[in-house]
């Protein structure tokens, strides 16, 4: 079993994720997986019944999932947002900033390296879905 | 110029430690090269032909003496005594050891410098006008806007794995000294109803498929700048092509959608952005802008220059430009001595420039996209002294914008992507036209050489461009005419079959002869080409 | 002949497989026959080389010569800075590249 990293207080959602098309056809599904090229905005009318959204990273170079996560969080989605696929330890801090709160990386992640990486920066320069306060705000209150 | 506060310094220092950890993991084997590559690239570290290469950011091309001296020190301590100034206003070192890279970054951090996002598929160093803050024709100093963008783009979590690299340029005058419309996003500051705003162009670029950026917005207020650019990037990150590296730049997306449709999508995205509180308050812009307030000019600086030394007078006419402050001038230091390597400077030369900046240019130096340096604020009364010091350091070539002021990428002498050498061609052309009177007779002639289709040498934007290709294992050079990276932006067209190294130098001599025979009034080479078209030039070369 | 080359992981130096080790001098390069990929895989795994690859070359009086100009530039150093090449004292070194 590959790693599973979870940064939420509630229990992980157990229902298996269906495809985007499957989800849009199934009125009672509460977990969905979107592929890198799929439009996260297609989910916006259904956010209230979603408990888990999995976003696929077919290769670590494919950064579309970061925007998908941002869009979902900006729209108010507060359920589990999972990054799955070629998710590398040095990317997880950026993914956390974009709103991902669980991770299912294909290759195991060294916990000490990950923790160091997540703890590293105290400051950020810009707004993102994590709500971290950018330095311009710290400068001017 | 901008100075770091505790936050800026902390972020850069933390970055050094992060990279130290990443290098350690690479050397221990915890990271494979495939996994390490994107991490090192986001810190400007390449594996080149002979060694690792480190590209250090010079944000919007502005440095002070202390920083220039550190660049010299790094060249001596960690490299082989020189550095190469690039067409993106950065500097790169060719002989870096991986294990030294974290220490170099630590040294850079002590003078508020870094190598963050000088490579990789992220938002790169923001480029600007090398005469910013000095040019007589600017409506405002563009650098506060560039610094705002620098901070916003640094470690942007959503835009660090874009389809491809992303280059932004900010200028503030009608004369374009920074090739603004050949950037992924080009911004020209304009005044409307007494307010300064950004005219935004998107989808320019060189490379395999050169394109001139169309305008997508005629006025974005400073209060909306970051959210607008964030919207522009999001549309690109979501919809830019990822199936083909050669079609992944934003220019392909903008071209495929059409500028109007791209602009519409950006507007749609922008509508939602304002609620996110992305834009800093006016106080933050004012804080940054205060660092770029005009320096303490000497109001009594005499406005006359003693031109009695004829060699000095030539340099004055060729390399010195008007300053907005009476009694001051902008002096360009050519890094293009005949027979030299365009853009290279030795550690000793960098030290000389640092000294001159501190003593005679209100502690400022600029790097230009033409791979030269600039002393932006020199008292006219000091120009002769400055020129003498430059001459003694081999830095007083009086060839700004002349045929020997050649932009050349490192080419196959250094670069693992290159197909042909660029530097030897530049050297041969400069030698053929070494007579300065002959160069001045030819007038403004921008010659640009790339050693491969990636076009780091801006060959598409040369009045004369040269593209090195590999023809069955030998170097071959295609000739292009009629490009420009300036406000009269245009893309050069290929003349026909390519040449060997000597052949392309001969062909250049022929096209310049056509120009000399046909020019009217004060036409430049490119003006004559535009009037006559390709035919007479082609006839002279191949006829 | 087939030559295996790459860069030293720590220093970045261009290196050539000698049959038992790595050398900075192309003169020492061995003919790896069809074993290049296998050696490359093992040596890279052991972190003795970075980004190795196999190239074609020919045997000459002066030793192995890479078939492609790019690897000849790598073998010597930048042709525009003879002082920084591996043969700073040899005025003919550049013509070996071209």
TrEMBL record, chain A:
Pfam families: DUF934 (PF06073). This is DUF934 domain-containing protein. InterPro entries: UCP030820.
TrEMBL record, chain B:
InterPro entries: NIR_SIR_4Fe-4S, NiRdtase/SiRdtase_haem-b_fer, Nit/Sulf_reduc_fer-like_dom_sf, NO2/SO3_Rdtase_4Fe4S_dom, NO2/SO3_Rdtase_4Fe4S_sf. Keywords: 4Fe-4S, Heme, Iron, Iron-sulfur, Metal-binding, Oxidoreductase. Residues 119-270, 404-541 form the Nitrite/sulphite reductase 4Fe-4S domain. Pfam families: NIR_SIR, NIR_SIR_ferr. GO terms for molecular function: 4 iron, 4 sulfur cluster binding; heme binding; metal ion binding; oxidoreductase activity. Residues 52-109, 341-392 form the Nitrite/Sulfite reductase ferredoxin-like domain. Transmembrane segments: none annotated. This is Nitrite/sulfite reductase.
From TrEMBL, chain C:
Pfam families: DUF2849 (PF11011). This is DUF2849 domain-containing protein. The lineage of its organism: Bacteria, Pseudomonadati, Pseudomonadota, Alphaproteobacteria, Sphingomonadales. It comes from the Bacteria.
């Amino acid at each position: 079993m590959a790693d599973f990293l979870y940064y939420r207080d509630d229990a992980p959602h157990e229902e298996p994720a269906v495809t985007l098309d499957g989800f849009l056809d199934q009125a009672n599904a509460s977990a969905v997986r979107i592929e890198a090229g799929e439009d996260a905005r297609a989910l916006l009318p259904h956010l209230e019944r979603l408990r888990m959204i999995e976003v696929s990273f077919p290769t670590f170079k494919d950064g579309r999932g970061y925007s998908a996560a941002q869009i979902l969080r900006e729209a108010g989605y507060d359920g589990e947002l999972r990054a799955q696929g070629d998710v590398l330890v040095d990317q997880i801090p950026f993914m956390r900033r974009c709103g991902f709160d669980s991770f299912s990386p294909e290759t195991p992640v060294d916990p000490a390296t990950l923790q160091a990486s997540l703890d590293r920066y105290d400051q950020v320069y810009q707004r993102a879905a994590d709500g971290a306060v950018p330095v311009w705000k710290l400068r001017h209150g | 110029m901008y100075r770091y506060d505790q936050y800026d310094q902390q972020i850069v220092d933390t970055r050094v430690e992060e990279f130290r950890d990443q290098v350690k993991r690479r050397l221990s084997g915890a990271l494979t090269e495939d996994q390490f590559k994107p991490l090192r690239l986001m810190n400007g570290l390449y594996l080149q032909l002979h060694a690792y290469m480190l590209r250090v950011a010079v944000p919007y091309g502005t440095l002070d003496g202390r920083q220039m001296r550190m660049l010299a020190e790094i060249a001596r301590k960690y490299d082989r005594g020189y550095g190469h100034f690039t067409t993106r206003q950065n500097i790169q070192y060719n002989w870096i050891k991986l294990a030294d890279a974290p220490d170099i970054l630590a040294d850079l951090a002590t003078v508020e410098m870094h190598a963050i996002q000088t490579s990789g598929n992220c938002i790169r160093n923001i480029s600007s006008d090398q005469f910013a803050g000095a040019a007589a024709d600017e409506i405002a100093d563009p650098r506060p806007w560039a610094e705002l963008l620098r901070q916003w783009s640094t470690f942007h979590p959503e835009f660090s794995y874009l389809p491809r690299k992303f280059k932004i340029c900010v200028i503030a005058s009608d004369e374009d000294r920074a090739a603004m419309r050949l950037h992924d996003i080009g911004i020209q500051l304009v005044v409307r109803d007494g307010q300064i705003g950004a005219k935004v162009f998107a989808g320019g670029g060189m490379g395999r498929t050169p394109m001139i950026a169309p305008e997508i917005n005629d006025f974005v207020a400073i209060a909306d700048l970051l959210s607008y650019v964030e919207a522009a990037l999001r549309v690109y990150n979501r919809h830019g092509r990822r199936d083909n590296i050669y079609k992944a730049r934003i220019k392909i997306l903008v071209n495929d959608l059409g500028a109007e449709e791209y602009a519409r999508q950006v507007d749609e995205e922008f509508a939602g952005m304002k609620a996110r509180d992305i834009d800093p308050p006016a106080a933050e812009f004012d804080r940054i802008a205060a660092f770029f307030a005009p320096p303490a000019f000497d109001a009594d600086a005499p406005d006359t220059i003693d031109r009695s030394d004829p060699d000095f007078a030539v340099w004055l006419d060729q390399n010195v430009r008007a300053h907005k402050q009476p009694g001051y001038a902008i002096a360009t230091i050519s890094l293009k001595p005949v027979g030299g390597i365009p853009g290279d400077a030795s550690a000793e030369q960098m030290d000389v420039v640092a000294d001159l900046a501190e003593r005679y240019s209100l502690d400022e130096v600029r790097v230009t996209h033409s791979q030269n340096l600039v002393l932006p604020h020199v008292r006219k009364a000091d120009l002769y002294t400055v020129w003498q010091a430059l001459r003694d350091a081999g830095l007083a070539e009086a060839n700004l914008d002349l045929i020997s002021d050649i932009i050349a990428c490192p080419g196959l002498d250094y670069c693992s992507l290159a197909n042909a050498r660029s530097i030897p061609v530049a050297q041969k052309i400069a030698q053929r036209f070494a007579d300065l009177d002959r160069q001045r007779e030819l007038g403004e002639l921008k010659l640009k050489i790339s050693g491969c289709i990636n076009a780091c040498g801006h060959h598409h934007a040369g009045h004369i461009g040269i593209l090195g290709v590999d023809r069955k294992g030998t170097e071959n050079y295609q000739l292009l005419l009629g490009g420009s990276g300036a406000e009269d932006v245009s893309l050069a067209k290929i003349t026909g079959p390519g040449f060997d190294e000597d052949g392309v130098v001969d062909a250049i001599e022929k096209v310049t002869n056509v120009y000399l025979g046909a020019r009217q009034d004060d036409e430049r080479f490119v003006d004559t080409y535009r009037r006559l078209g390709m035919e007479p030039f082609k006839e002279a070369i191949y006829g | 002949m087939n030559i295996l080359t790459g860069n030293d992981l720590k220093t970045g130096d261009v290196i050539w497989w000698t049959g038992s080790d790595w050398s900075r001098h192309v003169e020492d390069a061995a003919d790896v026959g069809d074993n290049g990929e296998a050696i490359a895989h093992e040596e890279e795994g052991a972190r003795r080389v970075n980004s190795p690859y196999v190239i074609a070359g020919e045997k000459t009086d002066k030793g192995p010569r890479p078939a492609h100009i790019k690897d000849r530039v790598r073998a010597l150093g930048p042709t525009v800075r003879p002082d920084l090449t591996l043969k700073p004292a040899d005025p003919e070194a550049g013509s070996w590249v071209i």
